[in-house]
């Protein structure tokens, strides 16, 4: 199981903050996934509040010892 937290705040009102915890369960694969950011950095993005609803903000790639790459949008 992998968990991470999403934090959103308004740049004009920085005290207006919302958080959500995301949990990813890997049930059928004995190999531990490794998440790989193409830029080599932690998965961290700043999202403009005027961004269109429904647009993709992050692509996540993972691989494991059996060599099968997973791709999440």
Short summary of the structure?
By secondary structure, this protein is mainly β. The chain contains no helices and five strands.
Can you walk me through this structure?
There is one protein chain. This protein is an all-beta fold and about 70 residues long. The protein has one domain (about 1-70). About 0% of the residues lie in helices and about 35% in strands. The chain contains no helices and five strands. It has strands at about 1-10, 15-25, 35, 60-65, 70. The strands form two sheets. A three-stranded antiparallel beta sheet has the order 3-4-5, with no helix packed on it. A two-stranded antiparallel sheet has the order 1-2. The model has no long low-confidence stretch (mean pLDDT about 80).
